[in-house]
Specification:
α2 links the parallel β2 and β3. The protein has four helices and four strands, in the order βαβαβαβα. The protein is an alpha/beta fold. The chain is globular, with a radius of gyration of 15 Å. α3 runs parallel beside α4.
Length: about 120
C-alpha cells in the first residue's frame, strides 16, 4: 500500500509540530505549513515538506493549492490557530476579528481550496 499523505497547518510549533512528528512516525508523507517557512525548521528536520501558508490570506491559500495541484491529501488537519488572551469585556474588536479569521474562516477557506486534493 502506498504511503498516505497528511497536510497539517500551523506545523511550526505546539500541537502542529507534535502532529508532524507523530504522523512521520506512522509512516505518512507529511506536508506542514507555516506563515514563515524559516520558522518551521524543526518540522523540516523531522521530515516534513514545509510550505508557506497564511490562512488569513486568500492569495496565500491559492498559492498553496497551486503548489499541491496534483498531490492527493488523505488527511487534512486544520491546526493553525490564534488565541486572544483577553477578557471579552476588554478585548479589542480587531483582536476578536483576527482570531475569527484564523480559527473559523481560515480552515473553511483552506479546506475549500484543497477539496480537489481530498
Amino acid at each position: 500500500m502506498a504511503s498516505r499523505t497528511v497536510l497539517i497547518t500551523g506545523a511550526n510549533r505546539g500541537i502542529g509540530l507534535t502532529f508532524v512528528k507523530a504522523y512521520k512516525a506512522l509512516g505518512y508523507n507529511v506536508i506542514g505549513t507555516a506563515r514563515k517557512v524559516q520558522d518551521a525548521a524543526e518540522a523540516s528536520s523531522a521530515g516534513a515538506r514545509v510550505l508557506e501558508l497564511d490562512v488569513t490570506n486568500e492569495a496565500s491559500i491559492s498559492q498553496l493549492a497551486a503548489e499541491l495541484k496534483d498531490v492527493t491529501i488523505d488527511l487534512l488537519i486544520n491546526n493553525a490557530g490564534l488565541l486572544v488572551r483577553d477578557k471579552v469585556s476588554t478585548a479589542a474588536s480587531g483582536e476578536i476579528i483576527d482570531q475569527f479569521q484564523v480559527n473559523a474562516l481560515g480552515p473553511l477557506l483552506v479546506t475549500k481550496a484543497l477539496l480537489p486534493n481530498l
